[in-house]
Structure formats: structure tokens, C-alpha cells
Amino acid sequence: MAYDFLSIEKKWQQRWESEGTFNVERDPGSEKFYCLEMFPYPSGALHMGHLRNYSIGDMLARFLMMEGKQVLHPMGYDAFGLPAENAAIKYGTHPHKWTWDNIEHMTDQLKRMGCSYDWRRRVETCNPNYYHWTQWLFLQFHKKGLAYRKTAPVNWCESCGTVLANEQVINDGHCWRCATPVVKKNLVQWFLRITDYAQELLDSLDDLPGWPERVKLMQRNWIGRSEGVRLRFALYGASLEIETFTTRIDTIFGVTFLALSPEHPAVSFIADRSPKKDEIEEFVASSITQTEREQAAAGGEKRGIDTGLFAVNPVNGEKVPVWIANYILMEYGTGAIMGVPAHDQRDFDFARKYSIPVIPVINPPTGEILDGRTMDVAFEEDGIQCNSGKFDGMPSSEALPAMTEWFVSSGWGEREVNFRLRDWLISRQRYWGAPIPIIYCDKCGAVPVPESDLPVELPLDIEMKTGVNPLAGADEWKRAPCPKCGGPGVRETDTMDTFICSSWYFLRFASPWTESGPFETEDTDYWMAVDQYIG
Ligand SMILES: [Zn+2]
Ligand SMILES: [Zn+2]
User: 363 CA distance to ligand 2 centroid (A)?
Assistant: First the structure.
């Protein structure tokens, strides 16, 4: 007899739904299990990847339910983001309609798949009852100084009038939509001060039993803690000092150039005093795309320009040329480096390309004597100091702490711990996201929307156009009285990166109905932490 999928599945799925088989409540008397799966973008329809992922969670959840555990197995939608805007423009619909239609369709598909979810707990990040609390969280960060505004360089298309993601800058620096050359523009953007937590994030990696070492290492490298020295090079004949950071003060005698990022604030000062002002400005303008810059930093083609100015090495008074180079990223360190080509491969590649001298200050422990004129790679390992004044002959591993002590006590610099981690740029010039709850007032500045006025809802009556943030044109929505002085104000038209929305949904699943906060602690005390994440 053939198995009649259609009628048998339907029968049981209806029964699960009518009996609330997978609905779950807190039960302090019994053991809980929180089985969390990656929640999908409502992109249209489920694909085989979803099916695979959600089957794993479904099996686990059902098994544990049958063992008598209280199993929280929820599902929701990561529903804001650019794809909805693009689809809306493409199909002549509204992101709101496109998204909600997809949510209902995909929910129907998941039900037909037979997944054991407590559907009463479904959350959608684009639902005002959810992003109310995303905005509330932003306000708490703002109150503590953890959400702040600063000017940051971004990719900008003049023709589209919008910021572009690095991935949207193509064909050697052109806009992916209209092929206009992309420029770097300094815009005021919102950030979250995640760097305040760098050390805590790093320390907590030691407290993660059962995690693959590979994953922990990735995280460690992303945080990127390094101990070193922050030092200053005085510009020769000018009243300006350039700060750099190095983890290799043992190579300080091998410095043969200084290199600045094209965005370094000292570049215009230097250009004004350089015989090559025009060439420098041209070079800076041509080093616009972040992609090219990151590739250069990672080992790709390096370009630079000699400014004709010199800086003074504090340890020996030697004058070294000051360059501007595309492989120096403003986002890391100080945006300027001391170039030690003998002992850093990137500096070596750059020095060979532009015939800058290479001076070895550490020889290999094998006894080999390096010759800067004939070396074909940088020597980056430990060895024996040479050309290093009173430190000659000392193993470099001993020289590093000794030279740090000497350097710092001579007043040339300070010990410093640096992190690769940067603050998180969260503002997007997009419509389909959670509005940042801020009102600008000429008198009071950036004023947070009072919590009692949340959520700041997205207006639905907008015009969708390519490359323009519809919120910037929503004049009626934008106008709002200043919460502080009552005078005329204007709403922030940037929305939050969707990764903010998806950074706390697992907490909302514990209390999806509460209207008095993002979640109830008695719920999260019971359900958290997530016991198994699948995604
Ligand atoms: Zn464009
Ligand atoms: Zn005001």
C-alpha cells in the first residue's frame, strides 16, 4: 500500500497545531533545553540549506521532548535589510509587503515541513513590537556613552547620492549601479563602542569549554591584542610629530622610511610643505577604494609617493624619508608606520619597489650575516641584534624587553596595548531597518527619543527609488519636536545595521509577548543560555 504523504502529514500537522503539541512554558520543576536555530531572512522561499539545517534542530528537539525535557524550540525572521529594498524596486512593490508576504509563505512551508516549533513565539525583527526594543537597547547604549557619533571615511557615489558598501565598489573604484567613480567622503556615522570590551572578550575565550580551538583562534585574531610601544617621529624642520605603534621596537635601528596612510590627518600639512604638493594630492585622490587598500595591505600591489620630507629616528637622529603609501590603513594602529624593510615583508616589498635602503638589525641565529643589498625576503624571526648600538650581540628575544625599557625610559614613547578590533559602524543610509531613535535640534544637538515615545515607527508612505534613502525625503515623518526644548527638530534618517536586530533575538524568544521590556528576567533566567545553536 502506498504511503499517502499528503493526507497523513496534514492530519498530524493539524493535530500538533490544535493541541499545541510543541508549545512550551517555564516549568522550574523540570529540566529545560533551549534549541536555537539560525533564523532566516524572509527571502522568498525555503531552499535545501534551510531544510537541512532545520531538520537537524527538529530531530534534536523532538528527541529531548520525548525525554521529558522542557524544550524551547522557536522560529522567527531576520526581516530588515537591503535585499527587501532591492526586491521592492525590482518588482515594483513595497519592502513591507514583500517581506510580510514572504514571512507568511515561509512559515507555511516550515509548517508543512513538520518542524516542532512553538509558533506562538514567532518574532519578526521588522515588527514594531520587536524593533521597539532594538531601539530601546540603542538608547541604553547611548545613555552609557556606548553609542556615539563620529566622522568616518566612507565610499560615496555622487550620482546616486549614497554611501556604498566596499562590495559595491567595483571595476577599480566605480559605483556598481551607475559606474560613477567612487570617492571617499567623511560622513558623521553612529558607532557602538565595542572596543571597550576587547579585553573582556579575549579573557572570556578561556572560559569556553568544548569550543573548537580553530574558532577560538579566529576570534582571538579578530580581537587582535598586541603589546608594543607608541612612539613619535619628529618631522625634520617642521613642528609636527608623527605617531606610530610597533610591536617590534627591537628593529628601531632598521627604520629606513616612515609611511602614512593617504587619509592620515598630517597629509595636508605635509603636502603644503612639500615640493610635490600636486602629485601628493593626486595620489591621495587615486587611493580611494578600500578594496584596493586592503588588498595592498594583505600582500597585493603597493603604491606610494615620496613626499620629499624627512622624519628623525629618535634613537640615532637619522633622517628617514616620509612616504604616503596605499598599504597603510587609517583604521589600524595610528595610520602611520615605521618602515623596517629588513624585518617586515610588506615594508620589504615596498622598499624594493622604490629602491629604499634595507638595513638588517637582526641576523639569523645560524650565524649568517644578512646583507641589505642582496636579501630577497625580509627576516621576520628571532635572531641576534646587529647595527643596534649597545644592544649588538644580544638575542632579539632578550633585546625586545630591554630595548622597550630603554626606549620608554628615554622618553621617546610609551608602552601600549593595542587591539585590532574597531568600533562597530551601525548607521545605514537605508529605509528598511530600525530607525535610530534620535532627534536633532539646532539648540540641543542630538537628543534621544524618550523611551515612552518608542517605537519610532517606519513610515510606510514612502517612495522607493534606487540609491536614495526614502527616509531622507519623508518630510512629514522627519519633522518632530525636540524632546528637550520643544523646538523644531529633525529625526535621524539613518537606520540600524540589521546585525543589531539579530544580535538579541534569542532573548526575545524567551519572552515574545512582554510589552514592558525586551524580555522578562524570570524567563531568561529559566531559558538561557542557549543549549544548542544550529546555523
Ligand atoms: Zn552610483
Ligand atoms: Zn532642543
Answer: 65
